[in-house]
Amino acid sequence: MREIASDLKFPEGPVAMADGSVVLVEIAAGALTRVMPDGTKQVVATPGGGPNGLAIGPDGKCYVCNNGGFKWHEESGQRRPILQAEDYSGGRIERVDLTTGAVEVLYTGAGDVKLRGPNDIVFDAHGGFWFSDLGKTRSRDWDRSGVWYAKADGSLIKEVAFPMVTANGVGLSPAGDRLYAAETQTGRLWAFEITGPGEIRRDPWPSPNGGRVLASVPGYQNFDSLAVDADGNICVATLFSGGITVISPDGKILDFVKMPDPYTTNICFGGPDLKTAFITLSMTGKLVAVEWKRPGLKLNYQEV
């Protein structure tokens, strides 16, 4: 493991760029930050609220899941999110120009259903994107959550899979015909068969949301974000045990890569061969790199 940067304010959503840098969010700072290969940090945009998941779209701009803000617990130089922020500003999808830092709000919901806490995002080959809305947690209740689909041009947004229990990481299979979605509180990984842009083949009852449980982890472990490798394995950031759980497309747990932070939250693949895994250790505020056993899956619109 190689430490690239430290003193980040709860980093998540890493995106590996062609120049070797990594763009990520600092949720507690309300900022998007570019981390250069030598560890130098440059703030590129300050949307405020709680920028969370990131993805590069077909126009080269960065699309941001903004959860609206967390309340934080800080102790011994470490921080973790606990509740909805007192100054919660509402969930939204934003588009950020990484050159100028300009931020525009693209979506805040669909009809009467408002976005509460958008979390993670992945683009398909059609120029649309799937994203999770984890919702927000308050002292005595939390929101039901789900997975949505939207077009990058602002013309369509719809909820596709509902309800879920704190939907978090999302990713696509190499063929783009299956969507994966991780649930935080249950430690479950769901699979949805895609039939078209923003469309799934819905499994019947007792599936609550049209998907099927592909895998789960024992004990008290929570799932966060995920990335898919070139072989189609799903690499899920796993909280409390602190590491990356590697799950095959047929649901077998293949490996667990231990990390030194119980809030190991995100993973992405970069480098010329996509065999470098960039991982966020959020509670301790670090971005690290690990040489991975298999190359990652090249994302749509990713330049390497």
Describe the secondary-structure layout.
Elements: E1 2-5, E2 11-16, E3 22-26, E4 31-35, E5 41-45, E6 51-56, E7 62-66, E8 70-75, E9 78-84, E10 92-96, E11 103-107, E12 109-110, E13 113-114, E14 118-123, E15 128-133, E16 145-151, E17 157-164, E18 167-172, E19 178-183, E20 188-196, E21 199-201, E22 212-216, E23 222-228, E24 234-239, E25 243-247, E26 253-258, E27 264-270, E28 276-281, E29 286-291
Antiparallel strand pairs: 1-29, 2-3, 3-4, 4-5, 6-7, 7-10, 8-9, 10-11, 12-13, 14-15, 15-16, 16-17, 18-19, 19-20, 20-21, 20-22, 23-24, 24-25, 25-26, 27-28, 28-29
What would your notes on this structure say?
The protein is mainly β. The protein has no helices and 29 strands. Helix content is 0%, strand content 53%. Strands 18, 19, 20, 21 and 22 form a 5-stranded antiparallel sheet that branches. Strands 1-29-28-27 form a 4-stranded antiparallel sheet, with no helix packed on it. Strand 8 (70-75) and strand 9 (78-84) form a beta hairpin. It is globular, with a radius of gyration of 17 Å.
Question: How many β-strand runs?
Answer: 29
Using the coordinates shown, work out and report the CATH topology.
Answer: Neuraminidase
What CATH architecture label applies?
6 Propeller
| Count of DSSP-assigned helices | 0
Give the total of domains. Answer: 1
Series of H and E elements:
EEEEEEEEEEEEEEEEEEEEEEEEEEEEE
CA(first)-CA(last) distance? 21 Å
- The CATH superfamily turns out to be TolB, C-terminal domain
Question: CATH class, please?
Answer: Mainly Beta
Share of helical residues: under 10%
| Average pLDDT rating | 97
| Main sheet specs | 5 strands, antiparallel
Beta content comes to over 45%
Coarse morphology:
globular
Structural class: mainly beta
Radius of gyration: 17 Å
Low-confidence stretches: none
